[in-house]
Design a protein that fits this description.
By secondary structure, the protein is mainly α. It contains 19 helices and six strands. A two-stranded antiparallel sheet has the order 1-2. A two-stranded parallel sheet has the order 3-4. The longest helix has 37 residues.
């Protein structure tokens, strides 16, 4: 493709070192669709005629079918998907194929392909994340009355509904889908027509091309258009955040399925055993997802590091944007899909969660609130309950078994009504502020998300 300037063939090592067809072949669909739209613009400009346009379109579509059927032979000496397709087209239809690259460069061509690819894959992932949210909501409904301790610092804090805990992840994933939808707005910019860096003296109808390809905006600066990979970095950030949220959920599942917690049981289909210890049932999906999040974060850092020192405009460094992007997309799509399955099959061990909620210290904050409602300043109430807790620990006496006269030694504001606090249902029902885990609130949230996700 540059033989006019060079007198000798590139080194075989350079060919191997510089090729990208081994991974960018997956852009073939976008490359073909983009090339057809470009050919239509060439026909409108009078560069090719109607018959040539049909020949190019038919040739490109036949190449696409061969690639999909696995019969197309990629050539590493042609470097990338763009030249592999263009070379095959010229071989099949003759000189007409050589006209296709008029008024475009691989620089704006690859930017177009990548933007189309990101739009498609992010849209697909949004649907998959919503499927995972639906799996979580179904689990919330199935175990709507299950109570377990809520934790801070991995220490028991206050009782919450299991469904409220899972709804927290539904909220996280909702931010992820919002973030991805918003990212599409910045990806949805049509760069074709920017050429290598300064456009072309053959001006094609860019608005027509954008309409053909479903873009809502045109790039406004040719130099920025060919060198911009912000959209790749933003995509990788969105994917990494989904991974981070799944990793946090993974950690909960890993802890809850341990013998020490025993809150959850995963299905045999979604666990593995040990080659040595026959009793083991390991939460490998959660562990793998927690580990793969490191790859997602690493891919983001990789592209940001690549971009940070590049001069304008296109540099070959930008070839390094594809493998991290492809890897992150494959990784997170697989993780989201298998999580949806796993969540749908897991069971809650209600006896164990209820046993954990029998810890009287879960009601310590409720006692402090009780005193506040009787006129005690919160900091004073906090100190009183702290001393009461110390007494409970030292004497081995749970709150509900401490005698009334002993309560009065800590504060004169106590009366027999304090014993009404030590009921989980009452404790949950009293948490009725917006966003709090009362059964009523949780039911409202489940219904809201069912409606939203069905829409």
């Amino acid at each position: 493709m540059w033989k006019g300037r060079f007198k000798s063939e590139p080194s075989s090592l350079l060919t191997l070192y510089g090729e990208s067809i081994s991974f960018d072949w997956r852009l073939y669909k976008q490359d073909i669709i983009g090339s057809i739209a470009h050919a239509k613009a060439l026909e409108r400009k009078g560069i090719i005629n109607t018959e040539e346009l049909k020949t190019i379109k038919d040739g490109l579509e036949s190449i696409g079918k061969d690639i999909e059927q696995g019969t197309f032979e990629f050539d590493t000496s042609l470097e990338d998907i763009h030249m592999n397709i263009e070379s095959a087209l010229t071989e099949r239809i003759g000189d007409t194929g050589a006209k296709l690259h008029t008024a475009r460069s691989r620089n704006d061509q690859v930017s177009l392909d990548m933007r189309m690819y990101c739009k498609e894959e992010i849209s697909y992932l949004i649907k998959e994340v919503k499927n995972l949210q639906s799996s979580l909501i179904n689990c919330c409904e199935t175990f709507s009355e299950v109570v377990l301790p809520g934790y801070t610092h991995l220490q028991r804090g206050q009782p919450v509904l299991f469904a409220h805990h899972l709804l927290a992840y539904v909220e996280m994933l909702s931010r992820d889908t919002d973030r991805m939808s918003d990212a599409i707005k910045r990806i949805d910019v049509m760069p074709l027509g920017s050429g290598a860096l300064a456009g072309s003296t053959i001006s094609l109808d860019r608005e027509f091309i954008a309409q053909e390809l479903g873009f809502s905006k045109l790039s406004q600066n040719s130099m920025d258009a060919v060198s911009d990979r912000d959209f790749v970095a933003e995509t990788l950030f969105c994917l990494a955040m989904v991974g981070i949220h799944l990793s946090r959920l993974s950690e909960d599942i890993i802890l809850w399925t341990s013998a020490e917690f025993d809150f959850l049981t995963l299905s045999d289909q979604h666990t593995t055993g040990s080659s040595l210890m026959p009793q083991k049932k390991n939460p490998d999906i959660a562990e793998l997802t927690r580990g793969k999040t490191g790859r997602l974060n690493g891919n983001l850092i990789s592209i940001m590091t690549t971009l940070k020192g590049l001069p304008m405009t296109y540099n070959r460094d930008l070839q390094e944007d594809k493998e991290p992007l492809f890897d992150s997309i494959d990784t997170i799509q697989n993780a989201v899909a298998i999580f949806s399955e796993m969540i749908g099959e897991m069971k809650v061990n209600e006896e164990k969660t209820l046993e954990a909620c029998s810890d009287p210290f879960l009601f310590a904050t409720d006692i402090a609130d009780y005193l506040v409602l009787k006129g005690v300043p919160f900091r004073e109430a906090h100190e009183i309950v702290g001393k009461l807790t110390a007494h409970s620990v030292e004497s081995g006496t749970p709150f509900q078994e401490i005698k009334m006269e002993r309560y009065l030694e800590f504060s004169c504001h106590f009366d027999e009504s304090v014993f009404d606090l030590f009921d989980i249902k009452s404790a949950l029902n009293s948490r009725e502020a917006t966003g709090a885990p009362s059964p009523k609130n949780v039911t409202i949230q489940i219904d809201k998300w069912k409606t939203k996700l069905s829409d």
